[in-house]
Specification:
Chain lengths: ~500, ~110
């Protein structure tokens, strides 16, 4: 039998149900893979050996009794370490949360547990999800399974590296400006940001609350659907959670794209995009046309301002959210003469440089005298971006672009210049600003053999049409090459 | 390659930050050296971010949240809450069932 660590979620779930192998055996295969790859990749901050073993035994017992439910039952899952897990260390890759054992599970985690998923470990990220390379982790960077000299992207770089390398069958991350889609693109896997509010943020350590969204990193589009089926849906514990019924994501997967209108966004294609990336994207667009889609060239002029507005809105929200880390109730404390000094010493020592920078940026953008010119104006620009998207979706069912302007870059290449790092997310940020769903699907490799991602964006709650197009992109691309630091091909 | 998307071709707008004041507001006890470095980096980012000011937005309302939601209400009902011991076990310092902190008010 092929190595179980290379199975897709869908294939593994079928194997578990038919009794070809057990969840315990699946877990063992993933442990073996992690033992092989972790020294190189550092995808994980914590591997929960005992908890995962208990989870796999329980999953097998439910399978025997016939009480198994849900598409992730018995499947080893990697969680980004900003998703709180009761009694299991959760650090958000920050020194300020070193040793923190949360007293509760986030809602997505609860749904995974209830669905029989086996929580294998907590993956590395840029501290508090701020970054595009995983180099901002206080615990050292993760590396790309395709080339360990290169970054896996970020901020969900650990989950992306784990899924690409086979040290998890599925990973979860959070996406505030591209933090699921960009690392998925750089690691040659599928990464999906759901409609804002579709997955509860309860128990997701907040970075920018109006932008953050939990989503899956998987090896196939169908696996992405399976993962979203488990974690999505209304949660009273998150007042911003979408209250309506969850759409049927699955039924259109094999429908193809005949009759659909695919919009190519002028502002996100061409200028500023690496030529090899653009060539691959153009080829995919041509394949979609060949498959029966109508291609529409569209302009969304205000998204030229999305990156600028994002670097006001996200830091502003981050400076407010991270005020809670004050050394009082949990996490690091550094001493001081009075409480204010204690807090200021704790925060200065506990936060890394990127987090400190964003807190400063946000505090400035919100401070008296600057609020309207910076934060207020950014919010108005956000309205214009949303209006541009709404107009575009009158003319197209989905919009497409590269996911990332470049393939994976070398470690250290962008750490000295924050602005060059921020540009990594220029194609992904607009969907966070609008709250719409978007997915990255791998379509090929560049001359260095590094994977290229294709982004499909859809209007709010447009996941069914987004997945439908993504599945066609996947079929057309036939991207079955896998990372060389994973041993073999994916088994579907 | 042409210009990068997201970076508009007009010149950045100069921004000056009173970084010591901002750091104090953010409760970050940073060294002079760190303050200088952060000021420079933040000014570069803000100069680009300030480009949002070039877009005319007269009569446009701001969006603070992507999907319009009104208040979410629930029944006022007693439910299970976090375990006191489990929560306090994470505290850097405690006094019985209380979080303990250094003095808040200076004695006169």
């Amino acid at each position: 039998m092929s190595d179980l660590a290379d199975f897709t979620v869908t294939a593994a779930a079928a194997g578990l149900r038919s009794g070809d192998f057990s969840s315990v055996e699946l877990l063992e295969a993933v442990h073996k893979r992690a033992a092989m790859t972790e020294a190189n990749l550092h995808a994980y901050l914590t591997i929960d050996r005992d908890g995962a073993a208990r989870g796999a035994v329980a999953a097998d017992s439910a399978l025997k009794k016939g009480t198994a439910h849900g598409p992730l039952h018995g499947i080893p899952v990697a969680l980004k370490d900003n998703m709180v897990t009761r009694g299991l260390e959760t650090t958000a890759s920050s020194k300020i949360l070193s040793g923190y054992l949360p007293p509760y599970d986030g809602t997505a985690v609860t749904r995974l547990r209830e669905g029989g998923a086996v929580i294998f470990g907590k993956t590395n990220l840029d501290e508090f999800a701020m970054g595009s390379s995983t180099e901002n982790s206080a615990y050292g960077p993760s590396r790309n399974p395709w080339d360990p000299e290169r970054v896996p992207g970020g901020s969900s770089g650990g989950s992306a590296a784990a899924v690409a390398a086979g040290s998890a069958l599925v990973g979860f991350g959070s996406d505030t400006g591209g933090s699921i889609r960009q690392p998925a693109a750089l690691c040659g896997i599928v990464g999906m940001k759901p409609t804002y509010g579709l997955v509860s943020r309860y128990g997701l350590i907040a970075f920018a609350s109006s932008l953050d969204q939990i989503g899956p990193l998987t090896r196939t589009v169908e696996d992405s659907v399976a993962a979203l089926e488990v974690v999505g849906g209304h949660d009273p514990a998150d007042s911003t959670s979408y209250p309506g019924a969850v759409p049927d994501y699955r039924s259109g997967l094999k429908s193809g794209v005949a009759g659909l209108r695919v919009g190519v966004v002028a502002e996100l294609n061409g200028a500023g995009i690496d030529p090899a990336v653009q060539a691959a994207v153009d080829q995919t667009v041509a394949q979609l046309e060949e498959a029966g889609a109508t291609i529409v060239e569209l302009s969304l002029p205000s998204i030229e301002y999305a990156l600028s507005a994002y670097y006001l809105i996200a830091p502003a929200e981050c400076s407010a959210n991270l005020a809670r880390f004050d050394g009082v109730r949990y996490g690091l404390r550094r001493l001081g003469e009075n409480v204010e000094e204690m807090m200021s010493n704790t925060r200065a020592d506990g936060f890394g440089p990127e987090v400190t920078r964003r807190i400063l940026l946000g505090t400035y953008a919100l401070s008296a005298g600057y609020y309207d010119a910076f934060y207020g104006q950014a919010q108005r620009v956000r309205t214009l971006i949303i209006q541009d998207f709404q107009a575009a979706y009158q003319q197209a069912d989905v919009l497409v672009s590269p996911t990332s302007p470049t393939t994976a870059f070398k470690l250290g290449d962008r750490t000295q210049d924050p602005l060059s790092m921020y540009l990594s997310d220029v194609c992904t940020i607009p969907s966070n600003m609008s709250g719409d769903p978007a997915i990255s699907v791998p379509i090929g490799v560049d001359a260095d053999g590094m994977p290229i991602g294709f982004q499909v964006m859809a209007p709010a709650l447009g996941e069914p049409v987004m997945f439908r197009v993504a599945a066609e992109v996947e079929r057309q691309a036939g991207f079955t090459v896998r990372a060389r630091h994973a041993s073999s091909e994916v088994v579907t | 390659m042409g210009r990068a998307p997201g970076l508009l071709p007009f010149p950045p707008m100069p921004v000056e930050i009173d970084i010591a004041k901002v750091a104090r507001l953010a409760r970050l006890a940073l060294s002079e050296e760190d303050l200088d470095r952060y000021r420079e980096q933040c000014e570069v980012v803000l100069e680009h971010a300030a480009r949002v000011q070039a877009l005319p937005t007269d009569g446009v309302a701001g969006t603070s949240h992507p999907l319009p939601r009104t208040n979410a209400f629930r029944e006022d009902r007693i439910t299970e809450c976090l375990d006191t011991e489990e929560v306090l076990a994470q505290a850097p310092d405690r006094d019985g069932d209380f979080f303990s902190v250094p003095k808040i008010l200076d004695e006169q």
